[in-house]
C-alpha cells in the first residue's frame, strides 16, 4: 500500500499546522494513512465508508459530491450536490474490479490532483472490498434465491420492526399471506422447472401490483407474504383485488389454471409476531375454504 500524506505549513502566529492547498499536497508521514485505514475499518456499511473517505478526499479536492457505482447500486456521500466538473476512477484490488468512484467538483482537476486521489484510493480499496463482500453475504442471507424476494428470515426481522413501530407510534400496517391454488398440479404434471417459472412470474406480478412502500417475501414453496405499509384495511383489500386481477390476466398462470388465495389482517398494538401471523393465516385458511381464488380479512 502506498503512503498517503498531507503537507502542512506552520502558522506564523502560533504553533499549530494548517493544510496547504491541494496543488501543494505532498507526502509527509504515514500517520494519516494509518488513521484513515483505522476509520474505514470501523464499519462495513458502504455509505459510511464513502462518507469517511470523502472527508479525507476533500483535503485534496473540494468535493461537491462523491459517488461509488457498483453492482450493488450507487452509494453517495451525505449532502451531495451533483454539479460542476466530474472525474471518474475505476477501483480495482488484486485484479478484481470493485466499481467506479466519481467526484463532482467546481475546481479544475489537474493531473497532479488525479495522481494524489489515486494514491488515496490505495487506502480505500481493501476496506471497500470488505464492505462489498459483507453486503453481498448479507443480501444472500436475506433473499430467496429463486425469486430475489425477501426470505422468511428477512420477513421475521421486518415484521418485528414494524410491530415495534406500531407499539411506539400507534400506527398500524397490514400483513397479507398468499399461496398459489393448483400449484402442486403444475409440479406434478410439468415438473419443477415449469413450477419455478410460475413462481418467478407470480413474484413479478406481486412486484407490479404493490406500492413502493410495501414489501414482498417468499417463505418457500408457493407461500408468500406482503407487509402493507398502510393502516387502512381497505388498502389491503384493493391490493388483493389488484393481485388477483393480474393473475387472471397472465397467460402463463392462466395456462396452468393457477390462481391465488389471500388472507390479510391489520396489526394491533397488543400483537406479537406469532399473534398477527396466526390471524393472517386463519384468514388465508378461510379464503381457501371459500373456494380459493379469493381473499378474506380478519
Strand order of the largest sheet: 8-9-7-10-11
What is the CATH superfamily classification of the largest domain? Reverse transcriptase/Diguanylate cyclase domain
What is the rounded distance between the termini?
A: 62 Å
Helix-strand makeup class: alpha+beta
Outline: elongated
Radius of gyration over C-alpha positions, nearest whole angstrom: 26 Å
Q: Indicate the mean pLDDT.
A: 87
Ranges where pLDDT stays below 50 over 5 or more residues in a row are 1-28
- Tally of distinct domains: 2
Can you count the beta strands? 11
CATH class of the largest domain: Alpha Beta
* Total DSSP helices: 9
Q: Bin the helical content.
A: 40-55%
H and E order: EEHHEEEEHHEHHEEHHEHE
CATH third-level topology of the largest domain: Alpha-Beta Plaits
Biggest sheet character:
5 strands, mixed
Structure description:
The protein has two domains: 8-142, Beta-Lactamase (2-Layer Sandwich); 152-297, Reverse transcriptase/Diguanylate cyclase domain (Alpha-Beta Plaits, 2-Layer Sandwich). 46% of the residues lie in helices and 22% in strands. The chain has helices spanning 31-40, 46-57, 111-142, 152-169, 183-190, 192-209, 233-249, 251-255, 273-289; strands spanning 8-10, 17-19, 65-70, 73-76, 85-93, 96-105, 174-181, 215-220, 223-228, 259-266, 295-297. Strand 8 and strand 9 form a beta hairpin. Helix 1 (31-40) runs parallel beside helix 3, helix 5 packs antiparallel against helix 6 (192-209) and helix 6 (192-209) packs across helix 7. It is elongated, with a radius of gyration of 26 Å. InterPro entries: Diguanylate_Cyclase (IPR050469), GGDEF_dom (IPR000160), Nucleotide_cyclase (IPR029787), Rev_trsase/Diguanyl_cyclase (IPR043128).
Amino acid at each position: 500500500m502506498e503512503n498517503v500524506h498531507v503537507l502542512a505549513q506552520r502558522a506564523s502566529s502560533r504553533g499549530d499546522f494548517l493544510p496547504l492547498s491541494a496543488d501543494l499536497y505532498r507526502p509527509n508521514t504515514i500517520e494519516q494513512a494509518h488513521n484513515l485505514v483505522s476509520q474505514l475499518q470501523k464499519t462495513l456499511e458502504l455509505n459510511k465508508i464513502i462518507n469517511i473517505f470523502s472527508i479525507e478526499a476533500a483535503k485534496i479536492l473540494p468535493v461537491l459530491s462523491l459517488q461509488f457505482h457498483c453492482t450493488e447500486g450507487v452509494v453517495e456521500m451525505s449532502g451531495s450536490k451533483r454539479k460542476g466538473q466530474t472525474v471518474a476512477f475505476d477501483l480495482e484490488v488484486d485484479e478484481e474490479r470493485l466499481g467506479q468512484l466519481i467526484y463532482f467538483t467546481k475546481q479544475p482537476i489537474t493531473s497532479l490532483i488525479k495522481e494524489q486521489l489515486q494514491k488515496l484510493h490505495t487506502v480505500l480499496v481493501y476496506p471497500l472490498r470488505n464492505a462489498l463482500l459483507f453486503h453481498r453475504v448479507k443480501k444472500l442471507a436475506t433473499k430467496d434465491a429463486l425469486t430475489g424476494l425477501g426470505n422468511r428470515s428477512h420477513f421475521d426481522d421486518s415484521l418485528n420492526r414494524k410491530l415495534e413501530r406500531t407499539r411506539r407510534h400507534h400506527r398500524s400496517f397490514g400483513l397479507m399471506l398468499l399461496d398459489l391454488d393448483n400449484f402442486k398440479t403444475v409440479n406434478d404434471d410439468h415438473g419443477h422447472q415449469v413450477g419455478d417459472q410460475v413462481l418467478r412470474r407470480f413474484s413479478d406480478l406481486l412486484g407490479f401490483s404493490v406500492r413502493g412502500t410495501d414489501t414482498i417475501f417468499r417463505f418457500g414453496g408457493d407461500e408468500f407474504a406482503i407487509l402493507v405499509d398502510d393502516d387502512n384495511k381497505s388498502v389491503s383489500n384493493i391490493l388483493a383485488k389488484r393481485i388477483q386481477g393480474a393473475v387472471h390476466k397472465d397467460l402463463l398462470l392462466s395456462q396452468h389454471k393457477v390462481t391465488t388465495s389471500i388472507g390479510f389482517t391489520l396489526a394491533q398494538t397488543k400483537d406479537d409476531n406469532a399473534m398477527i401471523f396466526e390471524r393472517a393465516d386463519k384468514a388465508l385458511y378461510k379464503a381457501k375454504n371459500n373456494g380459493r381464488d379469493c381473499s378474506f380479512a380478519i
